[in-house]
Design a protein that fits this description.
5 strands; single chain; alpha+beta; 10 helices
Length: 228
């Protein structure tokens, strides 16, 4: 099995929030939390979207990324399903099956990890090489077959196609963002098990402070607009 690590770039936060709002509302509605912010948005329900957009517009980049990572991790199982649906439509993507999707924050950047990817090495080699050559190559066994298949996956063209597939899968589930710096490795080189998000949603003190500051700014601006 292999693991892919892709940097998330060009994030359209407002569009993503608008597309994900029904899911976020459902998630917050079912969450058990003592956080004042979460309880406030549970009370707002449908009316929360303009407030969320106002808050998002005033948050620092790192906090936006942290919130986005929470959303991605919370729905990683569904994202994995969507990704596999997209892979199944591709001529050689159909020979890949992702096992899990997770997100890692590194400084100011976000990285998408696709782990436990199972590969039909014979089918991939035969499809990519085509014709008689592909048929002969697919007769290889063991490490030789695996090495040839991975070399085909690691070409610039293959990485570009896979990025297109990933972006398509993310967009269909509401995440408007670009991907870059596609890296692939075998699972035994680096792999972290993904732990499904807990039902109890807890915001860190730093994240909660940033959201409160942004909410206060949004409310002040609304009050100023009302006085004009």
């Amino acid at each position: 099995m292999i693991t892919a690590n892709i940097k998330i770039v060009n994030i359209e936060y407002e569009k993503t929030l608008q597309q994900l709002f029904p899911i976020i509302r459902e998630r917050l509605g079912a969450a058990e939390s003592t956080d004042l912010i979460i309880r406030l948005f549970q009370k707002l329900d449908d009316a929360a979207l303009p407030v969320l957009l106002g808050i998002m517009d005033r948050l620092p980049e790192r906090t936006k990324n942290e919130l986005l990572a929470i959303c991605l991790d919370t729905y990683s199982d569904k994202l994995c399903e969507k990704l596999n649906e997209e892979l199944a439509k591709h001529p050689y993507g159909r020979f890949l099956q992702a096992g899990s999707v997770s997100v890692e924050r590194q400084g100011e950047a976000l990285y998408l990890w696709i782990s436990q990817v199972q590969v039909d090495y014979k089918g991939l080699v035969k499809e990519k090489m085509g014709g008689t050559v592909g048929g002969i190559a697919s007769l290889l066994v063991g490490e030789k077959m695996e090495k040839m298949a991975l070399e085909l996956l690691w070409t610039e063209e293959s990485r570009g196609k896979l990025i297109e597939l990933l972006q398509g899968a993310l967009d269909k589930y509401g995440f408007a963002m670009g991907l870059a710096d596609f890296q692939m490795m075998q699972d035994h080189e680096i792999y972290e098990d993904f732990v499904e998000a807990e039902k109890h949603l807890i915001l860190t003190d730093e994240l909660e402070t940033d959201i409160l500051d942004a909410l206060a700014g949004y409310l002040r601006d609304r009050a100023d607009e009302g006085q004009e």
